[in-house]
Design brief:
Layout (H helix, E strand, L loop, with lengths): L2 E2 L4 E2 L4 E2 L4 E2 L4 E2 L4 E2 L4 E2 L4 E2 L2 E4 L4 E2 L4 E4 L12 E4 L4 E2 L4 E3 L8 E4 L4 E2 L4 E2 L4 E2 L4 E2 L4 E2 L4 E2 L4 E2 L4 E2 L4 E2 L4 E2 L4 E2 L7 E4 L4 E5 L1 H6 L4 H15 L5 H12 L3 H11 L8
Parallel strand pairs: 1-4, 2-5, 3-6, 4-7, 5-8, 6-9, 7-10, 8-11, 9-12, 10-13, 11-14, 12-15, 13-16, 14-17, 15-18, 16-19, 17-20, 18-21, 19-22, 20-23, 21-24, 22-25, 23-26, 25-27
Antiparallel strand pairs: 27-28
Helix pairs in contact: 2-3
């Protein structure tokens, strides 16, 4: 059986792998599933239809699977699905989804959510992300893989942040942030490329050079966006990192941070 501290309260219907550890005074609801090797610290609340994968670490006072902060929510049986190897630090909150947003809040693998960060209903967070202290993700936000969000930054609802982007501390993001880019300020504007992040994740010199040229065409030329994208396709199309960037732009609904 799982190692549950005597002061913890675990609903008999909760499904905990035998290697799970639950600390003092924590509460786990009846619709919760927790995978192998996950450690739940003291004073944690895990509720709702929440699924946690393997080897997650949840620090004291975190609230995982709480009801959405959405006035339209009326008790529907929605979900929070969290992958493997995540760190959920002190006083972090992650909410279940809403029917209007597809019913699922989803988190990938190997992310760190630092103290007091918030992931709202229907968000999708990829893998390998760093969500620093007191970051706030509003409802329906998409954060793709390997994004870094600096402390006290916030992302407006329905906004997307592309892979390998870097959001500076205190930034207020109200429009989609393209992949590979750095954004800062209130309201956030692009300030260059996350070159260090790209290098750390194995991008070659040739790939980085192409991304720099793409950034110049998109955001430093005097072309309107449609013209810039057409030029980008003509000159650099067929490369994986460029085709992904073009596709991200094509799917933007809120418009791009420029």
């Amino acid at each position: 059986m799982a190692q549950v501290h005597p002061t913890a309260v675990v609903h008999p219907d909760a499904r905990l792998h035998e290697t799970v550890e639950v600390g003092p005074y924590s509460i786990i609801g009846g619709k919760v599933t927790i995978g192998a090797g996950t450690k739940v610290g003291a004073h944690v609340v895990i509720d709702g239809r929440t699924t946690l994968g393997e080897r997650n670490r949840i620090s004291p006072f975190a609230s995982v699977g709480g009801v959405p902060q959405d006035l339209k929510y009326a008790g529907e049986d929605t979900q929070l699905i969290i992958g493997n190897g995540n760190q959920i630090r002190e006083s972090t909150t992650l909410n279940i989804g809403t029917v209007g947003g597809g019913g699922v809040t989803r988190v990938g693998d190997n992310n760190i959510f630092m103290a007091c960060s918030h992931v709202a209903h229907d968000c999708v967070v990829g893998s390998g992300c760093v969500v620093a202290n007191s970051v706030a993700l509003a409802g329906h936000v998409v954060v793709e893989d390997f994004v870094i969000l600096g402390g006290l930054s916030a992302v407006h609802q329905f906004t997307r942040v592309g892979k390998h982007a870097f959001i500076s501390g205190g930034a207020m993001v109200t429009m989609d942030v393209p992949p590979y880019c750095t954004a800062q300020g209130d309201r956030a504007e692009l300030s260059g490329l996350n070159v260090i992040g790209l290098q750390r994740h194995g991008f070659s010199e040739e790939q980085v050079a192409r991304i720099k040229e793409a950034y110049r065409i998109l955001f430093r030329s005097k072309l309107v966006l449609t013209e810039a994208v057409a030029r980008l396709k003509a000159e650099l199309g067929g490369q994986v990192e460029i085709d992904y960037l073009v596709d991200f732009i094509a799917q933007s609904k809120r418009g791009l941070t420029r």
